[in-house]
Amino acid sequence: MKIIKIESFEKEDIMVTVEGYPHARPIFNADITPTELKEKLAVWKINQDEVDEIN
Question: What pTM value is reported for the model?
Answer without folding.
Answer: 0.78
